[in-house]
Specification:
The chain has about 400 residues and is of the alpha+beta class. It folds into 2 domains: about 240 residues, FAD/NAD(P)-binding domain; about 140 residues, Elongation Factor Tu (Ef-tu), domain 3, CATH 2.40.30. The protein is built from 13 helices and 21 strands. Strands 1, 2, 7, 8, 9, 10 and 20 form a 7-stranded mixed sheet that branches. The relative contact order is 0.20. The mean pLDDT is about 95. It comes from Solimonas marina. This is NAD(P)/FAD-dependent oxidoreductase. Keywords: FAD, Flavoprotein. Pfam families: HI0933_like, HI0933_like_1st.
Length: about 400
Amino acid sequence: MDYDVIIIGGGAAGLMCAATAGARGRRVLVIERANRIGKKILMSGGGRCNFTNLDVAARHYLSANPHFCKSALARYTPADFIALVERHGIAYHEKELGQLFCDESAKQIVRLLQTECDAAGVRIEVDCEATAVEHDDDGFRLTTSKLGTLRCASLVVASGGLSVPSLGGSGYGYQLARQFGHTVLPTRAGLVPLTLGGTHLDDFAELSGLALPAETRCGKTAFRAGLLFTHRGLSGPAILQISSYWHIRDALAIDWLPDLDAHDYLAEQQQAHPNAELRTALSAVLPTRFAQRLCERWLGSKPMKQYRPAELRELAARLHDWPIVASGTEGYRTAEVTLGGVDTRELSSSTMASRKLPGLYFIGEVVDVTGWLGGYNFQWAWASGHAAGEVA
């Protein structure tokens, strides 16, 4: 064998797996088709990498099998990765909701992983991709674009999903899964801006660039965070989060005043400022441009003293449950993750090993486990990579 383990993909999961396997004395090769490792790490968190979250549980992940992620996450926790970060002297901070970011740069996380791989004797080759993979009684034989033909006992697929193709996203991992008899569940873009069309886009077009806190709802799922109007539709954390739960034609609603009882507020304004118009009252608790647009396009505006109690109740209900008709998403081009992927029913939850072919493993985004925004997907990468690296 040329190597004990070959890992296809030099992202977060692949590098964690490589360092873990290498530390066990395994001869490990990582091949990465891009011109450098960790490209998605480098662009994450605004360049500071939201590398984990203090509160990680199965409820933060979407999967056809919601229990699958529990084993790996329990065996490699946020505390484990934080200890690694601290051992490398990387300063970090909690931004909000348990989200941990580097104080300086995402480059520090890539350097950490590179250093761990170097210490474990891992070989990393960039600008190298597998053009063919075969299996026989002796293991796997890979034909590569740069290193010729290689053999290994264990093959780990850590090639990511379809999100952000400009950073190397591709469907190669799904292709390999199917080749070796695995089911690949339907994929779609997740953590992605929503688009609006026609009059729905026209209604908000002039608000592009404006941000405000809001609560988005789809079915029984809700997220309270920032919302951003764009020239194509809606974005911001509240939209990215709900996008993973939203399907075309699903009802979507927004609470424009999530931290306020709109009816109580409007009634108070009616008493305190009876001659002030509705748009003025709303401008005190919403961005002025947005409050004016709501009144001009939908709500109208008259002095507060002219509103009957039933009208105030109706206004409040609309502000707390505003229907939005999205036409779609911006797709994989801007999606942070890919939903769906290799069916977890055909993998071991403790080792990420294929139940169909000994020596084959799938880790990270290629698997049907997708986290919320806020460091959860990186923690899945660390946990699943570590799980496979301990046995591959």
